[in-house]
Design a protein that fits this description.
The chain is an alpha+beta fold and about 375 residues long. Helices cover about 25% and strands about 25% of the residues. This is BURP domain-containing protein. It comes from Rubroshorea leprosula.
Length: about 375
């Protein structure tokens, strides 16, 4: 349980948020924001998976002020929508289906406990985050460790562009991130600290013990977001779906499509064959967003003008079909020479295009 002063500060933030929402009489849910900004862009599966069904089905917004305080609700009034409540029990911000242990995300201030608690994803008791600790293979500043080379399932996702042709067999594994943290509304995300400088406060606010596995996971994500961008790329960490939409459209305009890898059924490492129908997307410019491990959905996005994206149909030896998304980087001269891709493919920076398939929880934004 956290100290009362932290609870008071967050209480003040959320009360201000609720008052602002009441004053505006409207707040768009992430799903409605997508449809408003991108009415002609289908939502990829990874996005719908990170939005609760109640949010994706309901478009109404209600604002109620009464004896119990202030209530702002976007989505269904039942559990699963997005709500900000200020009343006798304190303040509650909830995004998700039911209790946090069911995969939702909630921030509670006040109430019987008097403290602050944040839960996100996962079914395990007492765990706000549950994933492995390690540097992302999709941040090109980092050198791969020996552990990554031996154990990271993403190793199999790297390949050379010359191998992208029908009939090519590859041994692949499309892991599904165990981190089930979902999107929270931008209005809430913008009020939560996200920086190394404020890391102790973040741990306190999220009730995470310093030095724990969860703390290191969160620290790694923040540090990756704060690392300098490599030459030729622009990077941004989106802490909400709305901010990811804004970043991507600022780079590519609104005539975009968002694509992600879709696996027919979850399987282990196996041999896949590239089928006919490999399709290159328009242009050589893309925004690629990688799901990070954090208490709520955070995406590490980077924009590059030296990237080619492909839709690649795959078929496994057991008949499993995959609609895979692959990106090929045509200029790797500024990458870390010890990056995972170079060690796996046995090539040097800046010599040949380096490609990789994307896991299921990543998104590629490309011009239509």
């Amino acid at each position: 349980m956290l100290m009362a002063p932290m609870g008071s500060r967050l209480l003040a933030i959320l009360v201000s948020l609720a008052v602002a929402l009441v004053a505006s009489h409207a707040v768009l849910s992430p799903e409605v924001y997508w449809k408003t900004v991108l009415p002609n862009t289908p939502m990829p599966k990874v996005v719908t998976d990170l939005l609760h069904p109640e949010l994706t089905e309901e478009k109404s917004t209600s604002v109620n002020v009464g004896k119990g305080g202030v209530n702002v609700n976007t989505g269904k009034p039942k559990p699963g929508g997005t709500s900000v409540n200020v009343g006798k029990g304190g303040v509650n911000v909830n995004t998700g289906k039911g209790k946090p242990r069911d995969g939702g995300t909630s921030v509670n201030v006040g109430g019987k406990g008097g403290g602050v608690s944040v839960g996100a994803g996962g079914k395990g008791k007492g765990k706000s985050v549950h994933v492995s600790v390690g540097k992302s293979p999709f941040d090109y500043n980092y050198a791969a460790t020996e552990t990554q080379l031996q154990e990271d399932p993403n190793v199999a996702l790297f390949f050379l562009e010359k191998d992208l042709y029908p009939g090519k067999a590859m041994k692949l594994y499309f892991p599904q991130n165990r981190e089930t943290a979902t999107f929270i509304p931008r209005q809430v995300a913008e009020k939560i600290p996200f920086s190394s400088e404020k890391f102790p406060k973040i741990l306190e606010q999220f009730s995470v013990k310093p030095g724990s596995e969860e703390a290191e996971i969160m620290r790694n994500t923040i540090q990756e977001c704060e690392q300098p961008q490599i030459q030729g790329e622009d990077k941004y960490c989106a802490s909400s779906l709305e901010s990811m939409i804004d970043y991507s459209t600022s780079k590519l305009w609104r005539n975009v499509q968002a694509i992600s890898t879709e696996v027919e059924k979850q399987t282990q490492m196996k041999e896949y064959t590239i089928e006919a129908g490999v399709k290159k997307t328009e242009g050589d410019k893309a925004v690629v967003c990688h799901k990070q491990n954090y208490a709520y959905a955070v995406f590490y996005c980077h924009e590059s003008e030296t990237t080619r994206a492909y839709m690649v149909p795959l078929k496994g030896a057991d008949g499993t079909k995959v609609k895979a998304v692959a990106v090929c980087h045509t200029d790797t001269s500024k990458w870390n020479p010890k990056h995972l891709a170079f060690q796996v493919l046995k090539v040097k920076p800046g010599t040949v295009p380096v490609c990789h398939f994307l896991p299921q929880d990543h998104i590629v934004w490309v011009p239509k």
